[in-house]
Amino acid sequence: MSRIRSVIRGTGAYLPERIMTNDEISTIVETSDQWIQERTGIKQRHIAADGQLTSDLAVAAAKGALASAGIAADQLDLIVLATTTPDKTFPATATAVQAKLGMTGGAAFDVQAVCSGFLFALATADSMLKTGLFKTALVIGAETFTRILDWSDRGTCVLFGDGAGAIVMTAETDADAGDRGVFAHHIRTDGTKSDLLHVDGGVSSTGTIGHVRMLGNQVFRHAVTNISNAIKVVLEDTNTRVEEIDWFVPHQANQRILTGVAKKMKLDEDKVVSTVALHGNTSAASIPLALHTAVSDGRIQPGHLILSEAMGGGFSWGASLFRL
Q1: Helices 216-237 and 255-264: crossing angle, nearest 10°?
Q2: Could you report the per-residue pLDDT of 205-223, keeping only the tens digit for each?
Q3: Which of 115, 185, 254, 292 is catalytic?
Q4: Which of 251, 254, 279, 292 is catalytic?
Q5: I need a surface site. Which of 25, 219, 274, 297 has the fewest CB within 10 A?
Q6: CA distance linking residue 16 with residue 136, whole number of Å
Q7: What is the Cα–Cα distance from 255 to 166, expressed in whole angstroms?
């Protein structure tokens, strides 16, 4: 009896038109381009326009992924959208995407795991495809993250940007999938560390949106350890050696974290896809944005083995392994 495997058929991405440079941020808060680049590797980020919703960014990325996959919206039967910045408290932003795309059936819902959200959404959709519950999935990471920033806090406001990325996956038999597909995930959370990276507001607590608060040095220490452990589990579960990885597509939080994880795992730095300099940290959108960037510029080719990882507030973290 053939097993079912999830195969990534297409990628898409969208970035808002407005670009905010480090020099512009230095007119808002006490900082400098040199200070930001030395500590984060970030040069600029994109900012959503007034009235531009998370669902608008998500739809633009989704249309690109659907076109890349050669699949029409009415062929979809599942949308899983990872976001921390939804259009409304309810309904799920994924349902707004469903309506705007003209998807006529199936199910659409959101996943909230902050910067790890895309990997949690990927694992969710992958599991649902493999059980036969759905056949064609759109997995999106989309954020208007700059709307929950405190622009007087230079420790956080310099880090984040807005954007969206998406992939289309289909359920295939082993015979049809060949060597392609999503192979393994390792996702975890630790709620006891939530005070290190959180938003100080919410519907049932303050009745306000709140702002991002972070203890950066402690987050950095936990990030390198947790991410490295997740990667180790995924590689061991699939009997994969580090040398077999064609590309490492990590969450784009901070260039120091990317470099630290690569060194700890003895990954070739030439295989690391880094977009953090131009995009900043786009939370749940960062992995699919980076993936699409490397696919579009020709670095990532069909058949390449991809390792991905992320860590976000909660704490949440994880890793995934797949072959395009």
Answers
A1: 40
A2: 999 999 999 998 899 889 9
A3: 115
A4: 251
A5: 297
A6: 27
A7: 23
* Torsion sign across C-alpha atoms 263, 267, 270, 274: negative
- Residue 185 bears catalytic tag: no
What whole-number distance in Å separates Cα of residue 138 and Cα of residue 169?
Answer: 6
pLDDT tens figures, 52-87 = 999 999 999 999 999 999 999 999 999 999 999 999
Q: Name the catalytic one among 22, 279, 281, 292.
A: 281
Are both 4-177 and 181-323 of the same fold? Answer: yes
At the top level of CATH, the class of 181-323 is: alpha beta
HSE-up (13 A, CA, CB side) for residue 67: 9
Residue-wise pLDDT tens digits, 33-43: 999 999 999 99
Rounded CA separation 314/8 (Å): 28
Specify the fold of 4-177: Peroxisomal Thiolase; Chain A, domain 1 (3.40.47)
pLDDT at 209 (0 to 100): 96
Any catalytic annotation for residue 115? Answer: yes
